[in-house]
């Protein structure tokens, strides 16, 4: 307990799935958390359940202007920002490249990629004021290799981009004690996974050396480590949490 005591975090896409799990684990570890999501009903319910150290702000991460109110909420309610977890994301259509429309491609990139730029741009002034910061950008195994199981050029493009953007910003802000890392989950049991496929069956499971889908908390444990001072010498790095899938 208390691994994030005294720190303030913003977590996007925190209404469900992994974002919700990260918010729970952060609050358990003494962090004050601003949860954001498109869905105000579930977001408000989770924040209320987490108690006085959590607030919810409705946000569409693709809108740059939405970020100012999220950062203001963190500053007004909790006094600053130390941690950003850019978690919100969509899988988008599972379509081959020729069948993917321009609009579908742009939407996936807006949610998964452009929002990561907007989020980092928005929190960096507050982190510079604080003299410290940890940004954790959620990519995917699809940000490391294209053969992760589903056809989606847009998803792969956006997740590769997140990995590169992480390194670029880490290079710029290391001297200011602001660390930036990317996390690359494999198959995690969340609503996104359920919506993508009814069941991850025998063939897919055979690709996973540990032979099972992860509980979201197994990703939260890594995000917690990267957000905390325990990872003080780690920046600009990519971190797999994939049960060995990319070890093939
Ligand atoms: P999820 O269950 O679908 O949750 C994603 C959350 O992001 C939802 O609460 C969703 O809100 C929110 N969101 C979507 N678009 C948004 C927007 N424009 N603005 C604000 N919030 C938005 O997904 P998940 O599986 O937890 O995934 C979390 C992250 O991990 C994503 O970046 C995903 O790409 C990545 N990832 C997932 C897996 C996996 O196996 N599940 C593997 C690798 C990487 P609504 O519910 O209101 O739409």
CATH architecture classification name:
3-Layer(aba) Sandwich
What small ligands are held by the chains? Answer: NADP nicotinamide-adenine-dinucleotide phosphate
CATH names the topology as Rossmann fold
In spatial order, strands of the major sheet run 3-2-1-4-5-6-7
SSE string, helices as H and strands as E: EHEHEHEHEHEHHHE
- Structural class, by secondary structure, is alpha/beta
Report the total helices. 8
Distance between the termini: 36 Å
Task: Give the amount of beta strand, in percent.
Answer: 5-15%
| Number of extended strands | 7
> What are the segments in which pLDDT stays under 50 over at least 5 consecutive residues?
none
CATH class: Alpha Beta
**What's the gyration radius in Å?**
17 Å
Number of domains: 1
Shape: globular
Name the CATH homologous superfamily: NAD(P)-binding Rossmann-like Domain
Describe, in plain words, how this protein is organized in 3D.
The chain is α/β, with parallel strands linked by helices. It contains eight helices and seven strands; from the N terminus they run E-H-E-H-E-H-E-H-E-H-E-H-H-H-E. Strands 3-2-1-4-5-6-7 form a seven-stranded parallel beta sheet, sandwiched between helices. Residues 12-13, 15-19, 37-39, 59-62, 87-90, 111, 138, 140, 185, 187-188, 190-193 line the site of NADP nicotinamide-adenine-dinucleotide phosphate.
């Amino acid at each position: 307990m208390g691994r994030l005591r005294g720190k303030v975090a913003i977590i996007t896409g925190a209404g469900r799935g992994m974002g919700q799990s990260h918010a729970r684990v952060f609050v358990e570890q003494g962090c004050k958390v601003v949860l954001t999501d498109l869905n105000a009903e579930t977001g408000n319910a989770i924040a209320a359940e987490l108690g006085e150290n959590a607030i919810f702000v409705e946000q569409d991460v693709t809108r740059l202007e939405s970020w100012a109110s999220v950062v203001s909420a963190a500053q007004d309610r909790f006094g600053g920002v130390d941690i950003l977890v850019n978690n919100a994301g969509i899988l988008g259509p599972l379509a081959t490249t020729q069948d993917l429309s321009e609009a579908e491609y742009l939407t996936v990139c807006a949610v998964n990629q452009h929002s990561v730029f907007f989020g980092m741009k928005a929190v960096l002034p507050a982190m510079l004021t604080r003299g410290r910061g940890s940004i954790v950008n959620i990519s995917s195994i699809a940000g490391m290799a294209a053969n992760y199981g589903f056809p989606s050029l847009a998803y792969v493009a956006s997740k590769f981009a997140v990995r590169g953007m992480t390194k670029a910003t880490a290079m710029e802000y290391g001297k200011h004690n602001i660390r930036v890392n990317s996390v690359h989950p494999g198959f995690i049991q969340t609503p996104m996974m359920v919506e993508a496929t009814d069941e991850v069956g025998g063939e897919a499971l055979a690709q996973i050396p540990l032979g099972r889908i992860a509980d979201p908390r197994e990703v939260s444990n890594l995000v917690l480590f990267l957000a905390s001072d325990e990872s003080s010498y780690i920046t600009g790095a990519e971190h797999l949490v994939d049960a060995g899938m990319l070890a093939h």
